[in-house]
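Justification of computing resources. Each target in the renewal requires a structure prediction run like the one illustrated here; the chain below, 459 residues long, is used simply to show the kind of job we budget for.
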Amino acid sequence: MKLWGGRFTKEENTLVNQFNASISFDKRFYRQDIRGSIAHVTMLAKQGILTDKEKQQIVAGLEGILSDVENGTLEIDPGAEDIHSFVETTLILRIGDVGKKLHTGRSRNDQVALDMKLYVRDEIGALDTLIKELLQTILTVIEENLETYMPGFTHLQKAQPVTAAHHFGAYFEMFLRDRSRLSDILKRMNTCPLGSGALAGTTYPLDREYTASLLGFDSATRNSMDSVSDRDYLIELCSAMATMMMHLSRFSEEIILWNSNEYQFVELDDAYSTGSSIMPQKKNPDIAELVRGKTGRVYGALISILTTMKGIPLAYNKDIQEDKELTFDAIDTTKDCLTLFTGMLATMKFNRDAMKKSAVNGFTNATDAADYLVNHGVPFRDAHGIVGQLVLHCLNKGISLDDMSLEEYKAVSPVFEEDIYEAISLKTCVEKRTTLGAPGPSAMAKVITEYKRLLETEN
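Resulting structure tokens:
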């Protein structure tokens, strides 16, 4: 008989039971469920609803269940309806009728709302740790590649020279925003729903603020109907994870391109690559490709939860049970991708010569050649046209701007002098870009100092 079976005269249809049950996925809540129950009975005893002896018996029983599940001597019953029913039933079997008082003043609705918040709060901490590790890895790459010259791109066309440090700094900013989003979610969601009952609170004299403090919440929720039906924080979390995965996917796409024979900018470590079953020469960037592919999986979780919630009237409805598997899978996927991507990045090697050669041969210093003319009194629009002619000349001859003779320069514009070569060297092109956010070493030094400060500051 179910814990709610008193109203019913017949057992559930087997298929209905299987369809309705959530134990197969909400069993991962057992720590949070037991923690919430211990706080609940502690509050009940404080309020005189339970005696101290009853509280001690129940708490000891719950702690015993937790210990036995943790050490493997107690297996969570797959036939239970959900983790809440399993814990309560096991408690009653172990300590007798006093265990039946565990559920006083609460409903499964506020209980599952609490468990989900406790679980998500823990997982936000885990995600934050993984993002911080990725940021530290990116920062190491930045510090080691301040003079690793490469082409910057727009439209996937070579545009202007930058450094690998500057390029990776763009991703540092993205993941820094991701970390900030997690912090924002945590602040908004950190209210305790326990004590809201099924939807209308309870007649028992509960101290909800005390329960909230025991569980590390900032306060108790203010509306019992919203408390049991609110899943905004899951939508926010899935949205934040979808954004993280989008950033990882963009980064993966670049690494896949850079790892190709056409680019040869980077070489991935063997531990983060695979081979071909038929082509012995292959070394495939499978981790980067899988991260890119799994991004759609996390997007799917976000869209599914939004779709589930869009038509649900107040307060709790069984549809909301769908939130768990979607959120669990999105969290697991994002954590795995962050872990593997960080490892891949930490072991990746740069082919600095190939990167520099690509920047030179791609005319990424053409804008600086135009700036040279402007600095010698030529109007920018005229300078733009002159350098366009130079590029066309180089394309016809199969050379770069650096390879042109001074006579060839002067044939297009007499303004050019010997110092043009220094003006368009990649080193000069990068180093004279000193405004905040630019790739020049002085600008990058300021940014790196700020990045270190941000990583040392607790989010």
